[in-house]
Amino acid sequence: MRYELYYWPDIQGRGEFVRLALEDAGADYVDIGRLPKRNGGGGIPALMRFLENRSVEHPPFAPPFLKAGDLVIAQTANILLFLGPRLGLVPKNEASRLWAHQLQLTIADWVAEVHDTHHPISGGLYYEEQKREAKRRAADFRAERLPKFLDYFGRVLKRSPKGTGYLVGKAVSYVDLSMFQMIAGLRYAFPRAMAGLEPKHPRLAALHDRVSARPRVAAYLSSPRRLPFNQQDIFRHYPELDG
Length: 243
Prior knowledge:
Blueprint: E1 3-6, H1 15-25, E2 29-31, H2 44-51, E3 65-68, E4 71-74, H3 76-87, H4 94-118, H5 131-158, H6 174-189, H7 191-197, H8 202-212, H9 215-221
Parallel strand pairs: 1-2
Antiparallel strand pairs: 1-3, 3-4
């Protein structure tokens, strides 16, 4: 099956968690928002045309969403729940699939908290319009929330099958790919905070390195398909928010 991924063309964002799964699996997919107009793409207009199409039976609220045949699936964790067994990125038994989904939903909560460090009041306001509140929110995130999330996933890794070092089962899953993206994004957004916290979590750092060295992931990371982190994205680096 050829998958169609719909996401904003200029940022990694939440769509990156889906891209990493598709790339690692070597799936046949097209990133619609990044297609040239002559190939049926056209960036944001292409996404908006789909979102405004009233004939879609189960319309998404916002990107990312995936078209797989006649199915349209939205929400990052939901897309990965669908793709995981089809791409071989989750164990086959139901308990493991539910466990992976639970972890991915927790990562989704974490992503939202990262976003709210620079937009604590409103996503419709510029960062510069809420800098004071962002500084206060980021301080709490660095001191309380970031260590709590790292501690939790560190404990999950510690309990993984001996010698595997993966979050779900004995092989890499989409949750491991998502954890790579979290660590990479946090290193970009909060380099000082992460430099102080990462030595306490060597398993998570090792997982990041193991995922980045996977052949298809490494090829993707070194290609133009992997957009750089930037100040329009979820992970943003503002020195004043890094303590």
